[in-house]
Design a protein that fits this description.
By secondary structure, the protein is mainly alpha-helical. Helix content is about 55%, strand content about 10%.
């Protein structure tokens, strides 16, 4: 699926502010579950889940289930140019993401992750 990721597809998928924020948060954290994104974005769960589904369907994200939690991470086969673009966006926009990062850091009862072996 990731072989069809053109710049137009990626930018269209990230053109929504919520999707852009969640993608950058996931890129920064490595992996986040729906509840963590709901807290960080201060949004309702159905809206967060809908945007995650869009990011997954366009090939940017991959999910995995662990017990009651569903975790999202960048798709492991993304082209290098997408990783470079996301890293540059992260580096240049720390202030833009700061409120989301603070809410995530202050979140109580964050789910525990098992160590993955991919």
């Amino acid at each position: 699926m990731t072989e069809h990721l053109t710049p137009a597809t990626v930018f269209k998928c990230l053109s929504d502010e919520t999707r852009a924020r969640m993608t950058l948060l996931i890129a920064h954290e490595g992996e986040l579950c729906v509840c963590e994104l709901t807290c960080a974005l201060d949004e309702i769960q159905p809206k967060v889940s809908r945007h995650l589904a869009q990011l997954r369907s366009c090939g940017l994200l991959e999910d995995r289930r662990q017990g009651q939690w569903v975790y999202y991470r960048l798709h492991p086969h993304l082209p290098d140019w997408i990783h470079q673009m996301l890293q540059a966006a992260l580096n240049a926009n720390q202030q833009w993401l700061a409120p989301n990062s603070r809410r995530l850091e202050n979140m109580r009862n964050r789910p525990e992750r098992n160590t993955r072996c991919d």
